[in-house]
Specification:
The protein is built from 14 helices and 14 strands. A seven-stranded mixed beta sheet has the order 2-8-7-6-5-3-4, with helices on both faces. It has helices spanning about 5-15, 30-35, 40-50, 60-70, 85-95, 110-120, 140-145, 165-180, 205, 235-245, 255-265, 265-290, 315-330, 360-370; strands at about 20, 80, 100-105, 120-125, 150-155, 185, 210-215, 230, 295, 305, 310, 330, 335, 350-355. Helix 3 (about 40-50) packs antiparallel against helix 11 (about 255-265), helix 5 runs parallel beside helix 6 (about 110-120) and helix 5 (about 85-95) crosses helix 10 (about 235-245). The protein has two domains: about 5-30 and about 270-370, Aspartate Aminotransferase, domain 1; about 50-265, Type I PLP-dependent aspartate aminotransferase-like (Major domain) (Aspartate Aminotransferase, domain 2, 3-Layer(aba) Sandwich). The mean pLDDT is about 95. With about 375 residues, it is α/β, with parallel strands linked by helices. One of its GO terms (molecular function) is pyridoxal phosphate binding.
């Protein structure tokens, strides 16, 4: 039995009741009318003629073609769509792993990346090095491998730290997995929101055995569509994933598929828009944290729109986050949400989101709360 999903349980209490959502993991979304304004003629015709019947389990063919165009080595037949990234993670881990298998999982991470493998296999955690800007330690991953290791699971840009490894380190990890016959499962949902560096090559483009995960929710800022996908050049694995999907969502929402198609055809516009929002927000966060150097250690994300600052206050990060949301209505995610059964995650951190427009009011309220308490 899977444990409670700590993040979602916490969000069930606070996400829609707190006045200021300062820990959002997605880029700023946009109204339906604005998305439809981006539609080309084909997208508009599809939207207006859409009938609300069942859809293909693997996804709308035109959508899969557009998804494939976001990769270098992927064709439409290498793509399988899911109801968001969570369904894809759940089914992939249960298809790829079984009793007697071993997996290596990077921490800190999105909880499902850890708890779902733990429910079916042996798992070793390897932590990003917090003392070195959350650097990826390929030596530690290599040391954790066993003869039964089936899978290495990573997430870059990382949630919650915003870390992005340098290209040479990333290529070394891909090659290590290939040399050992291990599947690299690469969660790439924040790819495209890097400000000062190019995006890493996607795992599936680098290795025919790798599995790349993406979704419309994070970098594209369209979580309400609930459209995610796996790209993989192993047709037998995709067949197994399709059969597993028959037991969950079966197929995706037709309207969501058309809207995702429209968005992906305008992906350059959407990603540039969302990078501009992040870039505009970072100075506001710099200024806020700069006012309280005795309380915080902060660096903006290397990629994506979340990061994991350190809280230095004597009351501790759990109390700070709890009191801040109850007294001032500003929502953050404390370190306990990212506590791992596999490694030590620093207990003085909290997740903050920099991808939503207009954080200044929330930061002003937080400033006032800090100065009067």
């Amino acid at each position: 039995m899977l444990p409670d999903f700590k993040l979602e349980t916490y969000f069930s209490r606070w996400e829609f009741s707190a006045r200021y959502h300062l820990t959002a993991s997605d880029a700023q979304t946009l109204p339906m009318a604005d998305l439809l304004e981006l539609a080309d003629d084909d997208g508009r015709r599809r939207w207006e003629a859409l009938e609300l019947g069942y859809t293909e389990t693997r996804g709308l063919p035109a959508l899969r073609e557009e998804i494939a165009a976001t990769y270098e080595q992927v064709a439409a037949e290498d793509v399988l769509c899911f109801a968001g990234a969570e369904e894809a993670i759940y089914l992939a881990m249960r298809v790829l792993l079984g009793p007697g298998d071993h997996a290596v999982v990077l921490t800190p991470n999105y909880q499902a990346a850890e708890t779902i493998p733990l429910s079916v296999a042996e798992v070793t955690g390897v932590a990003l090095r917090s003392e070195d800007d959350w650097a990826l330690d390929v030596d530690a991953i290599e040391a954790a491998l066993r003869p039964t290791t089936r899978l290495v699971s990573v997430n870059f840009p990382n949630n919650p730290t915003g870390a992005v490894p340098d290209p040479a380190t990333w290529l070394r990890l891909v090659r290590l997995c290939d040399e050992r016959g291990i599947i690299l499962f690469s969660d790439e949902v924040y790819r495209g929101l890097e400000l000062d560096r190019p995006s890493l090559p996607q795992a599936v483009d680098l290795s025919p055995a790798a599995v790349s995960l993406n979704v419309m929710s994070k970098a594209y800022g369209l979580p309400g569509l609930r459209i995610g996908w796996i790209a993989c050049r192993d047709p037998a694995l995709l067949d197994r994933l399709e059969r597993a999907k028959h037991y969950t969502s079966i197929c995706n929402s037709g309207p969501s598929e058309i809207l995702a198609l429209i968005a992906l055809r305008a992906r350059d516009h959407l990603l540039e828009r969302n990078r501009r929002i992040v870039a505009a927000n970072v100075p506001s966060f710099d200024a806020f944290f700069g006012r309280f150097p005795e309380l915080f250690e902060w660096k903006p994300p290397q990629g994506g729109c979340v990061c994991f600052p350190r809280y230095l206050g004597a009351d501790g990060v759990e109390a700070m986050c709890a009191n801040l949301v109850t007294e001032a209505g500003v929502l953050l995610l404390p370190a306990s949400i990212y506590r791992s059964d596999l490694t030590q995650v620093p207990a003085d951190r909290f997740r903050i989101g920099v991808g939503r427009q207009g954080p200044e009011e929330a930061l002003a309220v937080w400033t006032q709360w800090l100065t009067v308490r």
